[in-house]
Design a protein that fits this description.
2 domains, Rossmann fold, single chain, alpha/beta
Amino acid sequence: MEELNLEGDAARRSVVIASNRGPVTFQKEAGGELTFQRGSGGLVTALTGLIQHIDASWISCAISEADKEWRAGQIPLTEHEDKIYLKFIAPEKDAYEGYYNVIANPLLWFLQHSMWNVPYVPVITKDTWKAWENGYVAINRMFAQAIIERLRHMSAPVLVMLQDYHLYLAAHELRSRIPPRQRPTILHFTHIPWPGPEYWGVLPPTMRYSILEGLCGADVLGFQTNNDALNFIRTCETYLPRASTNYKKGRIWYRNHATHVRDFPISIDVAALNGLANSTEVREYQSEIRDIVGDRKLVLRIDRIEPSKNIVRGFQAFEEFLDLYPQFCEQVTFLALLVPSRMDVEQYHEYLDVLMAAAGQVNANYGTPDWEPIRIMVGENYPRAIAALKHYDVLMVNAIADGMNLVAKEGPIVNQRDGVLMLSERAGARQQLASGSIVIPPCDIFATAQAIHQALSLPAEERRVNAERLRWLIERDDINAWLRQQLEAVSELNL
């Protein structure tokens, strides 16, 4: 990863990161030794670059039994052996189940992706309230306590970086339990969309108030897009009594405290991605992709199997495309690389059945002995995904709602065919990448079908210009820029 250059106040700070999942997962070897594997997500990548320069700690929930056994200590996260202090909190199983599988997923996640069928769900019961109090509230307090304990061992000034929808209450807990002169600067970044206030009305007032009050305990709130940031201010204006909002300054004044609301679009590690794309493993998978596609055009999608990704409508749009433009039959293959996600949640498991049926219908209606219109490959295989991204003619990203969608940024970086990006107007990546993409309304399968035809029919020069523009936009605002923008905002606000 390219070195992150920190200057001034940012370089002097200590940092405490808090997230549901940690940067590593431990496992116990046959001989009893604890070993760990580093996560590959964007958050880990970005913050790994940060720890090369400053004193950093990371607090997360224990996911495995080996995590619980490790508990806390120094671990190396980089090839330079830079170390980070890692602490796992270990909630009781029932508490974690309520916090994660009842409140965070699916209640908050579905709400923030506008996925609830409100006439029927959600249904808030006594069990939901038990999960809220004994799970979500309790574990947010555990995080706050662990952060407070860690602060005692760190030199000031300290920046606490809270991550995502699992920890909405933690900032308020910290502010209420730490004396003013000892308080760290608190930054909370939300990785998923923030819908308008009308959708937050689905939540009971007590939950809604606690979440808004919790987030307004932060000094800086980061969102993926400007619309998300504006929606948060609107939600506070609607539902948080005595909050004073200032849209022009992006500020909320509540309980004699200013919370600054900003957008920091997350991105990818371009250098690391290019390195992987040129690896032997990826080149071997490229042969597999060529065998599947042959000399046909390739429409590609790479998604987790979850309803917000809008996979079914993508298949329906491809069917409509074949119906509208039969000359493309047997000339195009739609390859879908799908990663299982939260299969223990009923809605996700059911969605897999529905999307498989939708693809099967297209193949039954249009397939021939020599051509399978839609090819689905299920499994988590990142090198194969990168190999496919190198070869697409059209990359379909038609999510109903997405915080960012990093596939939309990975594709243009590694693609070798001046492939066209079809991008949902409700994906966070649209804010940055619309000028080089074909923007589509995610629920309109006719418009999506027309966009497939447009993408496959674009002149070569227009494809090249758009592909170069996308690469430039993504390289300019990479994962380092995402982190640097947050640190600079803290410094510029004199926090």
